[in-house]
Amino acid sequence: MAQISVFYDRAGDTLTVWFGDPHAEFLCQEIGDEMILIKDRAGRVIGVERLNFSAEAPASLRVTFESVMA
Q1: Could you tell me the CA-to-CA distances from 21 to 6, 11, 67 in Å, in that order?
Q2: d(Cα 51, Cα 28) in Å, to the nearest integer?
Q3: Residue that wins the pLDDT comparison between 64 and 60
Q4: Three-class SS string for 43-64?
Q5: Cα dist. 54→58, 61, 70 in Å?
Q6: What is the pLDDT of residues 2-39, one digit of tens each?
Q7: CA distance linking residue 58 with residue 13, whole number of Å
Q8: Which pTM does this prediction carry?
Q9: How confident is the model at residue 31, as a pLDDT?
Q10: Exposure string over 16-46, b if 16+ CB within 10 A, otherwise e
């Protein structure tokens, strides 16, 4: 089973979601709307980051995941 990690940086106003090894980060590519793709050396997306993300009450920040089967 894959592991997903979610980090909220209040000081930097960023929300980062990792679905790969964060230590494998090699390249970041801004795709617009303050969204960044984080890629490994092979070009696979291993995470995404949302810039200027602000949560009113970060202690109660909830994350919901949905699985879509093709």
Answers
A1: 12, 23, 20
A2: 13
A3: 64
A4: CCEEEEEECCCCCCCHHHCCCC
A5: 8, 10, 33
A6: 688 888 888 899 999 999 899 999 999 999 999 999 99
A7: 11
A8: 0.79
A9: 95
A10: bebebeeeeeeeeeeeeeeebebbbeeeeeb
Cα separation, 5 vs 18, whole angstroms: 5
What angle (nearest 5°) sits at the alpha carbon of residue 8, between those of residues 26 and 27? 10
Amino acid letter for position 21: D
- For residue 65, give the 3-state DSSP assignment: coil
CA distance 43 to 36: 14
pLDDT level of residue 57 (50, 70, 90 thresholds)? low
